[in-house]
Amino acid sequence: MTSSSRSMPTIVFAVALCAATSVLAEEPAKTVPAKAPVKLVDLQPAKAEYGMAKDDAGVSQMEGDGAFDVGTWSWLPGTRDYWPEKQKVIKAVAPDFALPEGTQYLSERTDCFAVGGYFVAGVGLWTKTRNMYHYLDYEIPQGAKTLTGTVMVTDDPLGYFRGTGNATCNQQFEFLVFVDGNQVQKVSQTRLTKPWGSGEEIAKLDVAIPEGAKTIRFKLQATSWGDGNHNIEVVLSDAAFGF
User: Fold this and answer.
1) Alpha carbon distance 221, 225 (integer Å)
2) pTM score, whole prediction
3) DSSP β-ladder status, 64-65 and 168-179
């Protein structure tokens, strides 16, 4: 009798411990909710710059930040027009958005991008002459692992060159992406005799972000090719950082 009474607490504790262990084992594992993508249009560029790359052919007379040389076309209207703050960011386009009747899309607009007759949101890059460049730098959100999106050329291949009466223009350029100064994507394009409304998708953004990376640069560089390059506008549509 004494021996039996002495062992009862041990038995009760063992049963309780087994029950608790069983309950814990049956609880589903908790998962950490995935972080929502960060849209590029919701971020402010850390730096925006346009200018002229060195022209080895010696045709362009300018070089460096903040200037561009349109050569003999400087008399045309619109040659000096550029976006405020050297950037154009369209966060959204209303479903019923439309240009005034009889109006053609022009790159200098700051309320939309037009691609293939459709209006899209996104972040723009714009060059207006041979050898011209334009880039935007962004700080990479902490923990970002990828950057995805679509690269498009807009519907205005002529820009100020429309003042000559030409209906088409040629374009030759490179779209480049750098992460912490290292090139991670390059898209080269030569587009011939393009009329208004000929915008199209040219590439997908698919960039792997190394752990700890700090900055990303998107750059548009017109080549030194003289037979065109009067207007090149690229839009990064649906670009977003993934985690």
Assistant:
1) 12
2) 0.85
3) unpaired
